[in-house]
Amino acid sequence: MALMLGAHVGQQNMSMDAMRALWRKLDNAKVDWISAWDHFYEAPPAGGTIDHFEAMTTLGALAAETRHARIGCLVFYVGYRNPASIAKAATTLDHISGGRFELGLGAGWHEQEATAYGYPFPPVSDRLDMLDEAATIIRGLLVDERTSFQGKYYQVDNAANVPAPVQKRLPIWIGGLGEKKTLRLVARHADGWNAAYTTVAHFSHLNGVLDQWCEKQNRDPASLKRSINLTFNLGTTAAEVEQERQALRAAWGPAAERIEGGALLCTPEQAVERIKAYEAAGADMVNIALRAPWHDQALDAYIEEVMPALR
User: Fold this and answer.
1) How far apart are CA 68 and CA 60, in angstroms?
2) 168 burial class (0-12, 13-18, 19+ CB within 10 angstroms)?
3) Which DSSP state fits 262?
4) Which CATH number is associated with domain 4-310?
5) What are the structural domain ranges in the chain?
6) pTM of this prediction?
7) pLDDT one-digit tens code per residue, 173-217
8) How many CA atoms lie less than 13 Å away from 43 in the CB half-sphere?
């Protein structure tokens, strides 16, 4: 199967009109995937000082503006919404998009925004248990006529979801890097796994761990798609790349070293080989994570030079 190329567009620091124009540009360029992220504040965290749009409503516009790309969110934090409402919204987005929607779920990480907006942010072990319950409910509502579930965190009682999604099996993605619990949940519930901002070596290692979890679940590892998000820090010259490096370090602070390991921090020529390395490590899809501002010429070079070289 040919490598899929997508764009993970953070809905921050730009107007809605500018973002819609960007989606159309990417869709016309025949990217395979366009996603939003699920935040109330900017990422990386800056105390709620950068313009930012809500994810679910943003996805409605994305669904209506595009025609070619698969669309989704990488990923919804299940602590922000009732799982049944997520399933209902996913179904609605699948109809708006004509069957192009794929649902990403995760255990969340942005404690700053959760606290600011009044959402509990329990320890990660509890959030992963919430993800387990949420994925069970959502899958039931997407495929079964009626769903009942009584868990510690979430409950549904003989719940129906009509109309059903356009797709016979609307794909669920689970995102995260945790070997012991997250990847086990991927093997149990998901159609795809998304990793973000990690090195080729770490991505390859996690792929192997995921294969092991699939075997423990009596599941064919080949039945799971694998994707990686790389921060878009492309520059057309060495000087621009260095500017991007300094901007990344200023934005991410102590986390910069980790993020830089999963960044497209290079020239277009170098980007081709870097993406091919992730493909060799097991990626079925590579997404550039776009955080405004970026170099417009670099994005054009990615579309006009890098993408054709990879297809």
Assistant:
1) 15
2) exposed
3) T
4) 3.20.20.30
5) 4-310
6) 0.96
7) 999 999 999 999 999 999 999 999 999 999 999 999 999 999 999
8) 22
